Amino acid sequence: MINFDRVSKIFQGKPAVDDLSLNMAEGEFTVLIGTSGSGKSTTLKMINRLIEHDEGKIRFAGEEIHKFKPQDLRRRMGYAIQSIGLFPHWTVEENIATVPKLLKWPRARIRDRVTELLELLQLEPELFRRRYPHQLSGGQQQRVGVARALAADPEVLLMDEPFGALDPVTRASLQTEIARIHQLSGRTIVLVTHDIDEALALANRIVLLDQGRVVQQGTPLELLTNPVNDFVRDFFGRSDRGIKLLALGKVAERVRPGEAEGEPIPAIMSLREALSVFVARGCERLPVVGEQGQALGVLHFSDLITQKALS
Predict the structure, then answer these.
(1) Cα separation of 49 and 58, whole Å?
(2) Which of 58, 75, 74 minimizes the C-alpha distance to 66?
């Protein structure tokens, strides 16, 4: 879907991206992560030509991106950023409809698409479509920004630190929404973040950059369990690796037959979240239920701290 072949970008004689080769597969959720100045945002912005690369080739859907007019390329790629950039004097509906209007969609189709996206992002359509950005919370504005990026049903969604300015609760909620949208749509998503937990929670594949080069790429599990060097090991944290590994697993993977007292936890909960429930309740066993509320069995605290669970 998106291919970087020995791509470089030079700023003031210094490479921001240096001889970068990457392949982002169709339908994949790729997260670019790294320290400040590692080249992750520059890499993202070169995909839709907000920044032009100096060397190498970037291909989108098999075609070199310079074969597209920038505006045509960007209409095939949704773009969501931390600052959101909503037009302050336009309503929520008008903001979301920006690209469909440019594409001259019929008015009824635009209205239906706005309704669909507001519902998808859990904003009541009739309550929010006529509001202005200043009447929304930060989290609601960010949801509208994501809706606008998705409005013309783009093939790719590019996201540059989209949740960086939000409080932890709102941030976690929007991360869940993006994961759900990816699961429902199968859309190709490329996300830039500095948040390791966000990367581990969302990515199919993580690309760790340093000084404009790839240090390691792979699944979250691969980067946690098989770091190629001390930089990767330190970046993802030596001391809390076990906790991060628990975040990748689900309760369903550790359920045993049996019964237990107390409010049940869902099988889709992460093992890390389950650990927090164990600590809060001070118990040794938790009942587990499926999506329909049916009893599935029991999760034992001891199963979270075995070598198998933490390796």
Answers:
(1) 10
(2) 58
